[in-house]
Design a protein that fits this description.
Pathway: Pyrimidine metabolism; UMP biosynthesis via de novo pathway; UMP from orotate: step 2/2. The protein is an alpha/beta fold. It has 10 helices and 8 strands. Helix 8 packs parallel to helix 10. Bound molecules: cytidine-5'-monophosphate.
C-alpha cells in the first residue's frame, strides 16, 4: 500500500468526485466514506479504481462477527486497498473481518477505529462506562486489533507515539486531524501539520477540506504531500 496523503472525498455525488479527480494527472490515494458509498455503491469504487487510484473504504463496520465477516467478503470483491471496523465489536468480530476481507484479495489491509475523536472523556466514563483515560482506552483497543490480526488503527496523530511504543512502527497509524500551517481547523479540535504527524509516527494521513475546499486543490495537495514526505 502506498504512503501518499489520503484525500477524504467528502462529496455528495459521483459527478462531484469525478469533477474533482479530473484536475489531477497522477495516481492518488482517496477515502470514500459512508455518506458517499451508501448513495453511489460499488459503481463509484470501480470507476475510481479504473482511473488508477488507491481507495480507503471507510465504512467502520460494527455488528455480530458473522454479519461483519460476510459483509467483508462482499467488500473483498471490490478491489479496494484499505477498509476498517470498530474495535468495539470485539476480537471475534475483528478476526472474522480479516478472514472475510482476504477471501478474494490477500492485499487489502484492514484497520480498526479505536475511539472516535468525537468521544470525550466524559462520554467514555458516563455513557460507555469505561473508567480509564481516552489514551488507555485507545491503547487497549489497538492491542486487541493487533492480536486479532489487523494491520493497524485509525487514531489521532497525538496518540501515535504511544501506539508505536506499544505495538511497533509497522502497525499502521492512519491519522485524520491534519491541517497545514495557516489553514482553517474547521471543526477539528486536536490538529497537527503533515510534517508533525510524520514526526509523531503516523504511517498515513487523511486530509479532506484543506484540499477539497481549496481554490487550487492540486497545489494544496502537492504542498501537503511535500510537507508529509519531507
Ligand atoms: O476535512 P477533514 O480533513 O477534516 O476530513 C477528515 C476526514 O477524516 C473526514 O472524512 C472525517 O470524517 C474523517 N475522520 C476524522 N476523524 C476521525 C475519523 C475519521 O476526521 N476520528
Amino acid at each position: 500500500m502506498n504512503t501518499l496523503p489520503i484525500i477524504a472525498l467528502d462529496f455528495d455525488s459521483s459527478e462531484a468526485v469525478h469533477t474533482f479527480l479530473d484536475q489531477f494527472d497522477e495516481p492518488l490515494f482517496v477515502k470514500i466514506g459512508m455518506e458517499l458509498f451508501y448513495q453511489t455503491g460499488p459503481d463509484l469504487i470501480a470507476s475510481i479504481k479504473a482511473r488508477g487510484h488507491d481507495i480507503f473504504l471507510d465504512l467502520k463496520l460494527h455488528d455480530i462477527p458473522n454479519t461483519v465477516g460476510k459483509a467483508m467478503e462482499g467488500l473483498s470483491k471490490l478491489n479496494v486497498d484499505l477498509v476498517n471496523v470498530h474495535a468495539a465489536g470485539g476480537t471475534d468480530m475483528m478476526k472474522r473481518a480479516v478472514e472475510g476481507i482476504r477471501k478474494y484479495n490477500d492485499n487489502i489491509q484492514i484497520i480498526a477505529v479505536t475511539q472516535l475523536t468525537s468521544t470525550t472523556e466524559e462520554v467514555l466514563h458516563n455513557e460507555q462506562n469505561i473508567q480509564s483515560s481516552i489514551e488507555a482506552a485507545v491503547l487497549n483497543y489497538a492491542q486487541l486489533a493487533k492480536q486479532s490480526g489487523l494491520d493497524g488503527v485509525v487514531c489521532s496523530p497525538l496518540e501515535t507515539s504511544l501506539l508505536t511504543n506499544a505495538l511497533g512502527s509497522e502497525f499502521l497509524k492512519v491519522t485524520p486531524g491534519i491541517r497545514p500551517e495557516g489553514t482553517s481547523a474547521d471543526d477539528q479540535k486536536r490538529i497537527t501539520t503533515p510534517h508533525q504527524a510524520k514526526a509523531l509516527g503516523s504511517t498515513h494521513i487523511v486530509v479532506g477540506r484543506p484540499i477539497t475546499k481549496s481554490d487550487n486543490p492540486v497545489e494544496s495537495y502537492h504542498k501537503i504531500k511535500e510537507s508529509w514526505l519531507s
